[in-house]
Amino acid sequence: MAQSPGSTRCVLETRPLWAGFLLVIFALTSSVVMAQSAAELYAEAQAAYQRSNYAEAATLYRAADRAGFEDPVLFYNLGVTHYKLAEYSQAEAAFATASTTAKLAPLALYNLGLVSRKAGEPREASGWFAQAARHPAASKKIRQLANKAYVNCRRTNVSDPSGWR
To answer: What is the pLDDT of residues 144-154, one digit of tens each?
Structure first.
């Protein structure tokens, strides 16, 4: 049976539509799979941290971030993990990112103080502790801890110019 030229043209014109439709379906499916993958990586990072395997946890937290995990707690947890590994510059960067979220800011600022103190920067540490204590979202416990750390930091800074480690 012979096809008319018009019917062939119709088939050819719909191919790009089907190809585009399939491309959209593939993209949507990939993003769902990628989101699941990011959540799985984060869960694996949490499990590694619980096993005290901090190097693996840090690697998995970074992988979860690259895969699109979108919870600011990831950066707080990454900061704690780097702190445990004595990787203070990486901990500082992660806590700084976490501090941009109102909910995590007081705790992240307090931990930035701990990082600075461990790095031998008592003046910088006292500044972070002061910010944590004054933050409007700070809990009573964080205020108390930050104020105590601030006082100790200032006292140590006056009596021991080299700072504390």
So the answer is: 999 999 998 87
Query: How is 14-75 classified by DSSP, letter by letter?
Result: HHHHHHHHHHHHHHHHHHHHHHHHHHHHHHHHHHHHHTT-HHHHHHHHHHHHHTT---THHH
pTM of the model: 0.72
140 φ/ψ angles, rounded to the nearest 5 degrees: -60, -40
Round to whole Å and give the CA distance between 78 and 73: 8
> Homologous superfamily of 71-165 in CATH?
Tetratricopeptide repeat domain (1.25.40.10)
d(CA 118, CA 76) in angstroms, rounded, equals: 17
- For CATH 1.25.40.10, the residue range(s) in the chain are 71-165
Residue 91: exposed, middle, or buried by beta-carbon count in 10 A (0-12, 13-18, 19+)? buried
Task: Assign 3-state DSSP to the chain and report helix, strand, coil percentages, each to 5.
Answer: 80, 0, 20
- What is the distance between the alpha carbons of residues 138 and 128, in angstroms, rounded to a whole number? 13
In the structure encoding, which two tokens stand for residue 77, read together?
């947890």
Query: Scanning the structure block, which residue is given the tokens 């590994």?
Result: 85
| Token pair of 100 as six digits | 């941009």
